């Protein structure tokens, strides 16, 4: 066909004809797209034809395998027109009974694949958040019960874990309550839920910033950590994010007050009110981490004091968790592109990292913390000792004090004498 843009005749009605039917001797008035088709010349050729699906087959020479674009729609289902359908013009000048439509893929199938991957990603998200929540709660109660390890460093770990618990809890609330109807209604409580989620999401970053501040102060500035106070870090972790989220909520209320404050309108940048400070503390934390690693590699490499060893372990945990937190957050600003594979990888990668953050925080700051493990071991040994002492006492009380037993009757007889 001479034209680049394929035209299509759809005279046959799909439910009245089959894919095997052929309509020969088509007049140009019936099929205008065939008027520009050049005849194959002398010899045997197949006449112009429309098959039962509605695909136009131009006049073609005998023995030719003719290709045409897949139909745009059939029985209400859209098809991918970038692929082709093939049909053979036989040696006797007749068309093959069937065209080869195997390359024509319904767009509906592609949509189903996208939905399937999205549903799997949702399952990964829920599973990851559940595992993270269990690990975070175990870590929280370990820090709560083990009073012997309550130094400032571990209190900061404890608050970071608490921030992740609250963020995961609000994530579950968002997932279970935010239906499309609620989004459209934009009621007050759903906006408060969104604000709470963003607040606790921000506290994760600011408590990670608190971790970086503590290590930077102790290692790089060589400032005595005894002079650092708990209230300073509480202000950083819990207080500073609050006015930021209040300012964001006011901006949303006046400029983007729809869909429970999720998403954003084109040209409205109110989300940067809280995203900007989060990116800032993330960048500062990376600078802190660079300085800390530099000092540890040069000045404190030979030091073997218990405090330095604890700092090294805390730095190792931060080296893993800070990039993890940063990469996950930066993925929100990345466009995966139009490629299907890129989008699938992006969905799975983002779902896994975001949902398992709390689990990794629990592992590195609690379960692998040597102080926590030592305190748990001591508590367990103490419990074992108490249990064994109690068992020995019970056993001793059950054994008679004398091998000979004296009856009440014999005692009564001896006293009467």
Helix and strand layout, with pairings?
Blueprint: E1 22-23, E2 45-46, E3 49-51, E4 56-57, E5 60-61, E6 65-69, E7 73-74, E8 77-78, E9 84-88, H1 107-145, H2 152-177, H3 180-185, H4 188-220, H5 230-239, H6 241-255, H7 272-298, H8 306-330, H9 340-355, H10 357-367, H11 370-398, H12 408-416
Antiparallel strand pairs: 1-3, 2-5, 3-4, 6-9, 7-8
Helix pairs in contact: 1-2, 1-9, 1-10, 2-4, 2-5, 2-10, 4-5, 4-6, 4-7, 4-8, 6-7, 7-8, 8-10
Indicate the overall shape.
elongated
Q: Report the uncertain regions.
A: 1-30, 402-417
Radius of gyration over C-alpha positions, nearest whole angstrom: 37 Å
Compute the average pLDDT.
78
What is the number of strand segments? 9
Number of domain units = 2
By oligomeric state, this entry counts as single chain
How much of the sequence lies in strands comes to: 5-15%
In sequence order, what are the helices and strands, one letter per element? EEEEEEEEEHHHHHHHHHHHH
- Number of helices, counting only DSSP H or I runs of 4 residues or more: 12
Largest sheet: 3 strands, antiparallel
Structural class: mainly alpha
Determine the CATH topology of the largest domain. Answer: Rhopdopsin 7-helix transmembrane proteins
Distance between the termini: 137 Å
Using the 3D structure, state the CATH architecture of the largest domain. Answer: Up-down Bundle
Kindly provide the name of the CATH class of the largest domain: Mainly Alpha
Helix fraction, binned, reads: 55-70%
Strand arrangement, largest sheet?
Answer: 1-3-4
Family: Belongs to the G-protein coupled receptor 2 family.
GO cellular component, one term: neuron projection
Domain G-protein coupled receptors family 2 profile: 32-108, 121-369
Protein name: Corticotropin-releasing factor receptor 1
